[in-house]
Q: What sequence folds into this?
């Protein structure tokens, strides 16, 4: 082996000094970087089983599962004669991310989906007041009620949203998704309360709350309480769900938002892992064994850039790193604890799209989707090409994105090989490089005291902001090229624009009226409920919140059943926990 | 204007509403600071009242609003009214973020000087401010590279 390696190294030297040097001299704009060729000498001592392994086995580099269930899409499509994408395992997965105006508007949207044969549970986007713990009648909510998602103030709103889900699509037969973080426990309490009122056993519920508060401080910004108190609330949901709702995922950890906020690939991976470690430690500190709860950790996505090969390497590195953390650091024995389950995969995000010549965004999203399928993810081009135009996605943009995924699966048949780059000198080298850089960055955070400390001292926030600034400057300097923005913008280029004729079905007028309607209903609910009971429950909540060892979730279920509002609950907790004050970016 | 040329131009970067996507605001804050401006960043979740008060207290020359949530029309309308009330309606107000093309004239009608959308260079914004404040050629003093 080592003799072979010597021969290869010698051949490399000869190649570099001979043909390569000659070519570089001939084309002076080429440099060593653009002529990188990987060979076995880049992977000295490479151990396949240690570094890669078979798909669905430790360290999961080659894939989370032995085979991605969607790999059979082409077969299923030809059997069905049409390209309907079935849910994995025939189960009723959550619908696409959606939420419109008032609970009634959202209910009607889901009703429509079910009438068209949809079987998925709600995948709820909440408006910003709900995400930040303010009721629709709060002065801070003015102008934002029902805008970027549905507004939820009380259990009554949940009761309305879930009206279409009865009979064989009742809560024990669907999966729900809640994109909410700071007040996630209130929403979990509402789901549990709704099930109890309908007589459905809690252990039958399936859902995924995002419940990933730490990344909100680093990116996205829908935090309420200081990180330490937020982690206490995370502990409450982790323990409550593990004991009572074992089929509900505990968290959906996202590097995606961190990357979109400007983080480099390595920061994205290191910060996501630091956050995951903090959450895992919460469960261990609560006295649970890691294998009791880690199988219920999920990831939503890590985000991605246009650099396809590096993004494939990123996904492989992420799987390996997480598996090692679980096994070596937390002593997990159950393979399900060590796997990254994620909703999407290596897709790009809005920060890779351009307002200029927007149809180019379809090309970009397709490259992201190809990176996704080549690294064990799904063929879901994202975002729809009209994302940066800012009027909501049009139906034709959604159709084209979906078709692109089908073309990748059914025509290019790219899903039919699992981790096709396994063993590639280039890919294994890139995977090692990304993983090593992320471990190094993670170590820095660990030395500060972990994710919470690195948020409290502003390290992660500032690092991401600085990277975002660097990214912008690289674009302005022309080091990071964006077609139609800082290159290929000459007068001979055609400024291709697009007409969006089929608007999204949600009527913008309804959205405008949502605030007024919701405020009226909230007032009605407040009139009808038992005020003394509400006051008693809120007093009790305050007392319990002051005792760190208390799990607030059972009490939150009682609160929401009495139609205590989300804003009232968060208001009491704000008094007890205080509010997070962002660190200065300077 | 005469005294202006001695002091740094003061810019308030503000993030109105509950939207927390503030990297654009931070990037522009860093960029304008590096271009030699005095930059004050409000942080998240500011009401138009907070922003108008900050503009007054900090005696800024420019107010830059970063809005991605789609609430730009109502926010700007309220802010412009408040600035007028406080007697600082003459401040240079800029908007950055996701603004559909057809809303740009509406914002300008309300008194917004310019709208900067995705793909803008920070240098464009810096040059625009200098030109508007009559400093095109000299640039702010103490400008950093």
A:
């Amino acid at each position: 082996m080592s003799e072979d390696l010597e021969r290869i190294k010698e051949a490399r030297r000869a190649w570099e000094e001979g043909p390569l040097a000659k070519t570089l001299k001939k084309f002076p704009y080429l440099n060593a970087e653009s002529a990188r060729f990987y060979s076995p000498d880049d992977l000295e001592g490479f151990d396949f089983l240690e570094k890669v392994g078979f798909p669905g086995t430790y360290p999961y580099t080659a894939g989370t599962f032995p085979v991605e269930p969607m790999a059979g899409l082409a077969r299923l499509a030809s059997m069905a004669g049409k390209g309907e994408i079935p849910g994995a395992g025939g189960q009723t997965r959550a619908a696409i991310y959606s939420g419109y105006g008032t609970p009634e508007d959202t209910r009607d949207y889901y009703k429509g989906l079910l009438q068209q044969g949809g079987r998925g549970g709600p995948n709820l986007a909440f408006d910003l007041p709900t995400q930040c713990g303010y009721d629709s009648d709060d002065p801070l909510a003015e102008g934002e009620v029902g805008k970027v998602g549905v507004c939820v103030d009380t259990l009554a709103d949940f009761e309305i949203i879930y009206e279409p889900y009865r009979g064989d699509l009742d809560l024990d037969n669907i999966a729900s998704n809640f994109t909410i973080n700071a007040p996630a426990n209130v929403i979990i309490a509402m789901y549990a309360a709704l099930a109890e009122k309908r007589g459905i056993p809690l252990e039958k519920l399936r859902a995924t709350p995002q419940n990933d508060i730490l990344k909100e401080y680093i990116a996205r910004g829908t935090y309420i309480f200081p990180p330490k108190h937020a982690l206490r609330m995370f502990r409450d949901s982790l323990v409550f769900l593990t004991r009572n709702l074992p089929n509900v995922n505990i968290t959906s950890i996202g590097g995606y938002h961190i990357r979109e906020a400007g983080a480099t690939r390595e920061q994205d991976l290191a910060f996501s892992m630091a956050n995951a470690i903090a959450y895992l430690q919460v469960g261990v500190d609560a006295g649970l064994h890691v294998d009791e709860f880690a199988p219920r950790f999920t990831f939503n996505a890590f985000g991605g850039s246009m650099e396809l090969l590096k993004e494939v390497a990123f996904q492989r590195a992420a799987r390996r790193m997480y598996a090692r953390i679980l096994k070596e650091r937390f002593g997990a024995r159950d393979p399900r604890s060590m796997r990254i389950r994620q909703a999407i995969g290596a897709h790009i995000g809005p920060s890779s799209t351009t307002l200029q010549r927007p149809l180019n965004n379809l090309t970009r999203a397709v490259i992201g989707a190809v990176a996704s399928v080549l690294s064990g993810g799904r063929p879901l081009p994202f975002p729809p090409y009209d994302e940066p135009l800012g009027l909501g996605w049009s139906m034709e943009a959604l159709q084209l994105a979906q078709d692109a995924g089908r073309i990748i699966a059914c025509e290019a048949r790219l899903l039919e090989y699992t981790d096709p780059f396994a063993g590639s000198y280039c890919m294994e080298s890139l995977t090692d490089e990304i993983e090593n850089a992320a471990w190094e960055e993670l170590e820095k955070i660990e030395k500060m005291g972990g994710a919470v400390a690195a948020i409290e001292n502003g390290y992660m926030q500032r690092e991401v902001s600085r990277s975002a600034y660097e990214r912008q400057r690289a674009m302005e300097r022309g080091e990071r090229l964006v077609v139609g923005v800082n290159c290929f913008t000459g007068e001979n280029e055609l400024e291709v624009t697009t007409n969006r004729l089929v608007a999204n079905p949600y009527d913008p007028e309804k959205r405008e009226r949502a605030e007024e309607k919701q405020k009226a209903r909230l007032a009605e609910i407040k009139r009808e409920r038992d005020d003394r009971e509400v006051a008693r429950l809120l007093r009790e909540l305050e007392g319990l919140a002051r005792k760190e060892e208390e799990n607030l979730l059972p009490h939150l279920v009682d609160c929401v059943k009495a139609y205590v509002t989300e804003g009232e609950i968060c208001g009491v907790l704000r008094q007890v926990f205080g509010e997070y004050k962002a660190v200065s970016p300077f | 204007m005469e005294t202006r040329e001695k002091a740094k131009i003061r810019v308030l970067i503000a993030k109105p509403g509950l939207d927390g996507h503030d990297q654009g605001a931070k990037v522009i804050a860093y960029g304008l600071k590096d271009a030699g401006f005095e930059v004050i960043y409000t942080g998240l979740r500011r009401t138009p009242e907070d922003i108008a008060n900050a503009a007054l207290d900090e005696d800024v020359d420019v107010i830059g609003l970063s809005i991605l949530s789609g609430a730009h029309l109502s926010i700007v309308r309220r802010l412009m009214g408040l600035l007028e009330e406080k007697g600082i309606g003459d401040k240079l107000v800029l908007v950055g973020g996701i603004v559909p093309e057809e809303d740009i004239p509406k914002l300008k009608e309300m008194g917004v000087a310019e709208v900067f959308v995705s793909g803008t260079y920070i240098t464009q914004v810096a040059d625009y401010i200098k030109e508007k404040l009559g400093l095109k050629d000299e640039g702010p003093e103490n400008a950093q590279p």
Remarks:
- The interface with chain B takes residues 128-129, 131-132, 134, 139-141, 143-144, 147-148, 216, 219-223, 261-262, 354-356, 388-391, 464-466, 468-469, 472-473, 475-476, 482, 485, 582, 584-586 of chain A (CB under 8 Å).
- Chain A is about 50% helix and 5% strand.
